Amino acid sequence: MYAFTYETPASVADAARLAAAGGKPMAGGQSLLPSMRLRLANPGQVIDLNNIPELAGIRRDGNALVIGAMARHMDVAASSEVKAAIPALAELASHIGDRQVRARGTLGGSVANNDPAACYPSAVLGLSATVITNRREIAADKFFVGMFTTALEEGELITAIRFPIPKRAAYLKFKQAASRFSLVGVFVAQTDSGVRVAITGAASCVFRHAGLEAALNQSFTPQSAAAVKIDASDLNADIHASAAYRANLISVQTQRAVAQMLG
């Protein structure tokens, strides 16, 4: 691990000032610290966000849930507000990593990191959530740019995420056994503006599947999803699964998610 200085700001304003000067924000540290230990990252200055009260909390705001960036996975999974309003989100959070990861990892950290196989980005995109930062609000469809890349600018910090409450939703995750990341994860949501299907783990970045959305908007049944051909040409292929296998998983997981939503 390279040498670095360690800052513990007590406000978003102080954290943003340090980040604008080149410091690296740290939420749960589940991605940053391993990278530093392996000398894959050399931030020079680490900005610990854990002592900023305004970044925590989960609350209902009209027809939406607003979840603070520093909400732990275990907090989202256990929240009565989340379970009542968006049970699929609580279920998603309850299966991230292992118990230790869920006790430290955060919603904001996961979304800002945008790992190609992370679970939360599919919920943000599938629910058409809004990412709230210290500078602006960013729609989910414009937030995820590419592998480990988002629309966040230098010095910009996620403070909360606003999730519209859907009519119903489900998340189906096929885990990579060792890492517990998504080999393929599918988040399906019926919203006021129609069905949204967000896929994680299958490509270099979370994405919506237009074909599945169109089919399910026309007929919300597992059979409708099964009839959609999933193009494997842009999907990941690695030692864990071929692109064709991931394409099949997208179809199967979507069908199962729809069946679960129909009860």
From TrEMBL:
Keyword Flavoprotein applies: yes
Protein name per the record: Carbon monoxide dehydrogenase
One GO molecular-function entry: FAD binding
Keyword presence, Transmembrane: no
InterPro entries given in the database record: CO_DH_flav_C, CO_DH_flav_C_dom_sf, Diverse_Substr_Oxidored, FAD-bd_PCMH, FAD-bd_PCMH-like_sf, FAD-bd_PCMH_sub1, FAD-bd_PCMH_sub2, Mopterin_DH_FAD-bd
Keywords assigned: FAD, Flavoprotein, Oxidoreductase
Boundaries of every FAD-binding PCMH-type domain copy: 1-168
